[in-house]
Amino acid sequence: MSKNAEHDKLGKLKQKLLRGVGSAIADFGMIEDGDRVMVCMSGGKDSYTLLSLLSDLQHRAPVKFDLLAVNLDQKQPGFPAQVLPAYFESLRVPYRIIERDTYSVVTSVIPEGKTMCSLCSRLRRGILYNVAVEEGCSKIALGHHADDILETFLLNLFFSGSLKAMPPMLRSDDGRNMVIRPLAYCWESDIAAFAAPQNYPIIPCDLCGSQENLKRKRAKRLIDELQLEIPNLRQSMLRGLGNIHPSQLMDARLFDFGALGAAANLADELDAAIGHAEMMAFTSAPVTLNSAS
Predict the structure, then answer these.
(1) Is the pLDDT of residue 282 over 60?
(2) Any alpha helices (H) in the chain, and if so which ranges?
(3) In degrees rounded to 5, what are phi and psi of residue 48?
């Protein structure tokens, strides 16, 4: 492929990602005029791509907002502490590096071979939430993409017995922070294809990223396997998370099943169960009666 063709392909891919981010921001009201957005930078392809896309939108969006890139140095052995500051300075992006030895805490509490993600993420989240308040950031942007959302949905369904995923926006439990996921409509394959030629200085994770026995990786493989049989699986799953019908599930907190008692109209219940269009097609179909011989 010629350089011009590669450049055109990369440009189209960036526009696709920008449309996804723009649509997510618009659909969920993620960024408002005057926001200061803290972009959490892990050193992985997703956070680099997120910062790149938000920086681009910052110059063309109809609303004005500021960005602050933040990295939490967790004191993992061999962590290249100079990489991210040099990258941010080359882009002239405001940034802050936070140093906290959560690595020692996690490795001292979690037995070797056990999953570290839960404790690590809780510690990291608490630190970043406090930094956002200190810096006056009204939004915290995370690099989770559509595939992360689908995998989380399956993890909760399979292992927690709950129907929940990663929402595009989330108010923290203490009410101080608003978390946003601008990549909610973007697929990991597109992000990887965009990031590869950028030569981002990727920093691997020696905690969660080095563990092969994670349930999340199994959920990812399951989706990959099903995608081979069902080409539109991922798109269908993502649409499904935004197309909820409480009356067709089993949570009495979301739908008053008790109201469907003897006083309810049977026809209305059937309409709700199988869909009005299907019912009309069924009742309007011609009927042939066979006379007895």
Answers:
(1) no
(2) 3-28, 45-58, 83-91, 102-109, 117-134, 146-155, 188-195, 215-229, 233-241, 266-274, 276-283
(3) -60, -45
pTM: 0.84
Q: What is the amino acid identity at position 213?
A: N
Q: Residue 270: its pLDDT value, please?
A: 64
Q: What are phi and psi of 93, to 5 degrees?
A: -100, 130
Contacts for 49-53 with beta carbons within 8 Å, 24 or more apart? 49/17, 49/143, 49/183, 49/191, 49/194, 49/195, 50/141, 50/142, 50/143, 50/182, 50/183, 51/93, 52/198, 53/14, 53/17, 53/18, 53/21, 53/182, 53/183
